[in-house]
Amino acid sequence: MKALVVYDSGFGNTKTIAEAIAAGLNSLNAKVLPVGQLRPEDISSGDLLVVGSPINGWRPTQKIMEALARLGSHGLSGVVAAGFDTRVKLFIHGDAAKKITKTLKDAGASIVGNPMAFYVKGTEGPLLDGETSRATAWGEELLATARAYGTQRSA
Prior knowledge:
Number of helices: 4
CATH class: Alpha Beta
Largest sheet: 6 strands, parallel
Strand content: 15-25%
Radius of gyration: 14 Å
Structural class: alpha/beta
CATH topology: Rossmann fold
CATH superfamily: Flavodoxin domain
Helix content: 25-40%
């Protein structure tokens, strides 16, 4: 199993969270990749794919949705996956993480983590205190869940 954390980032906050998640996946030597560099052949059955985006107009960025559409046509059967977003903590906001997760599932991936939100102080950030630590911990949870899922599938 290898891990790939794919992100889009306007102001660097989502990139920081992606790197923190990858730190939690350290035993897999997770690769962190901007969405523009993702190729469908980068992902194989048995891999862990984590995808993140800032909320942009109540949803993931167009680049993320286009990349997921390309992956969907390639098929994510056998891939385990999770989605996250960065957002301002407001009463009303979009939910990019849920949309990413649904798109991953619709493309055949097995979802191993609930959609996760990480918070910024304003449109341009910075991240709220503790969010990078929370992202690393979430990466560790994803790793444990993905490994357990892989063990169950091979049993």
